[in-house]
């Protein structure tokens, strides 16, 4: 599922884009569709990078791209192997909530961004995430190790103190919030819950088919139930 709204961003042919903590490559692939960009997906997990490579190769086979290039890098977000100010856009989606030293991670993702260029950061939204933690003591470990919950203002303040200007935000994936509440209620590691499995099939159908009814419900409910908060910022000019 794509969390970033690329229509909010100005991306030009030849721009270099970093998707840090790319996972299986959903945002890397979405960025690769933009015209003439050079996109880098970076993650510390080699299994994730393998899945991202398979996705990108599939896009190449189907010619579902904007004619640019892609590459992948094994990288730790608190020690990025890239020069200062080398990317025109940095995406950091659903990463910071996993990082104990999140201040170093913020400094790094801003260090590699060019001055005056955009940064997009998404994290789980405070209330839906707090409900998950309240329903299950296992959740933060089962969900790949969440170590904190951000309030929107706190996240923005931290990023602005690190050298950026806040531009705007939105919420995303409201129809996913009840799924995680249900999953936490029955046990986040259970695989035999009929209700959870049925809901998961609905979400998969939504992602694959994008029917109007789920798109409409998601947009309608995002201001209240959005699972993620997405913030858009710009690195300060020199």
Structure description:
The chain has 238 residues and is an alpha/beta fold. The protein contains 9 helices and 7 strands. It has helices at residues 26-32, 46-61, 102-111, 126-135, 139-142, 152-161, 177-186, 194-209, 212-225, and strands at residues 16-20, 38-43, 69-74, 89-93, 118-124, 164-172, 228-235. It has a 7-stranded mixed β-sheet with strand order 3-2-1-4-5-7-6, sandwiched between helices. The model has no long low-confidence stretch (mean pLDDT 96).
Write the layout of secondary structure elements.
Elements: E1 16-20, H1 26-32, E2 38-43, H2 46-61, E3 69-74, E4 89-93, H3 102-111, E5 118-124, H4 126-135, H5 139-142, H6 152-161, E6 164-172, H7 177-186, H8 194-209, H9 212-225, E7 228-235
Parallel strand pairs: 1-2, 1-4, 2-3, 4-5
Antiparallel strand pairs: 5-7, 6-7
Helix pairs in contact: 1-2, 4-7, 7-8
Question: Which descriptors apply to this entry?
Answer:
alpha/beta, seven-stranded mixed sheet, 7 strands
Distance between the termini: 35 Å
Task: Kindly report the average pLDDT value.
Answer: 96
Shape: globular
Tell me about the largest β-sheet: 7 strands, mixed
Helix content: 40-55%
Going across the biggest sheet, name each strand in turn.
Answer: 3-2-1-4-5-7-6
Name the poorly predicted regions.
none
The number of helices is 9
Q: What share of the residues does DSSP label as strand, in percent?
A: 15-25%
Q: Using DSSP, what is the number of strands?
A: 7
What are the secondary-structure elements, in order, as H or E?
Answer: EHEHEEHEHHHEHHHE
Structural class: alpha/beta
